[in-house]
Amino acid sequence: MRTSSDVKLAAVADAPPAPPEPTRRWRPHPLDLVAVVLAVVGAACALSGLLPRAETTATLHRILPLLLFLGTVIVLAELTAVAGVFDVLASRLAIAARGRWAALFLLCGGLATVTTLVLNLDTTAVLLTPVLLALARNLRVPAAPLAVTTVWLANTASLLLPVSNLTNLLAADRVGLAPLAYAERMALPQLAAVAVTVALLWYAWWRRERSVGGRFVAPARHVPADPVLHRTALAGCLLFVAGIVAGVEIGLASTVALALVLLGFVVRSPATLRPGLVPVRLLLFVTGLFLVVQTLGRHGLDDLVGNLLGTDGGALGALRAGGTGALLSNAVNNLPAYLAGESVLPAGDHTRLLALLIGTNVGPLAAPWASLATLLWFERCRAAGVRVPVTRFVVTSTVLAVTGTLAAVGALLLVS
């Protein structure tokens, strides 16, 4: 006699097999397309003669050390995140805040500032953003203030060291300043930019989102999955920072630090190491952008930027340079904006060159495309399902771009 369960089993056995899961087609990200198009157009400019061979060679020779640094430091930051260094820092910051909203604000802002200074702004935008968004979920607090903290400070806290931003590397090379001498010149402008950012962050985002009483429930301490890898990655970051302070060439410092971390992953987690860690998109983007901007400079862009910069010296010239950098950054992107401005300013005009740098670092916040860090930040927010109010973001970011640039350029004039 067949039971009901036997009937059910027979029915299942006789049923036609389930259709296979549809295979998802790989689709390139829009930023991948932008990078490839820039690389192809840049190569076409060089091969067609629109950019003379001598200038092509000089441009590639200039950016090769930058590409080495960018490639190694991004991989270093990715592996550092996998090892749990950022998660440990974020959870300890939340615990250190002891449930106080204002203390959490200062600690998150401090972490974003330090990450930008010592690694670079793209690390803050790409890796620290998801950490703070996860922290917001764990604490059950609004995510928008923590998200805006990363993108604002990724841009405005990127003035102090050459490693903090690709444009800084170009500027330090242009004015002939070693890392420590560069940091001494930019310390006061950096302090001014961060002070304005912190004030606006609090009043425009954090203060209005705090709960009644300004308290939250502190999370448990985060324990890394592999303590050995965690310590190795932390040691690699500290070695990198020590190399920069000691004046070691930045590409060499990042390569040595990465070699140490890679060794740890080869031993402890070899499956983590994959070709996708290499930031091919960023390397293609930078290479193509340099070649295209150099070509456009020869065919009219230099004249346009020269008219915007003018010939004024002193405070007016510095303010005009900073304003031009911020304006062009939001119109196009901060990297071509700096390259175009640098090409028409005399190498000996340090004050206007550094004011231009301030405009292209602190200013690119009003438009989503104004800096690569801001584009990457938007991508991370979308991936995490976090919606930042667009109108509020654009309005407050525009206020920061203007006031932050003015404050930093004013501070530069005090030390010039």
TrEMBL record:
Location of the Citrate transporter-like domain = 29-340
Question: Where are the annotated segments for Disordered?
Answer: 1-25
Q: Does the keyword Cell membrane apply?
A: yes
Which keywords appear in this protein's UniProt record, sorted alphabetically? Answer: Arsenical resistance, Cell membrane, Membrane, Transmembrane, Transmembrane helix, Transport
Query: How the protein sits in the membrane?
Result: Multi-pass membrane protein
The keyword Transmembrane helix belongs to this UniProt entry's keyword annotation: yes
Kindly give the InterPro entries that the UniProt entry links to this protein.
Arsenical_pump_ArsB (IPR000802), Cit_transptr-like_dom (IPR004680)
Looking up Pfam families in the UniProt record yields:
CitMHS
Name of the molecule in the record: SLC13 family permease
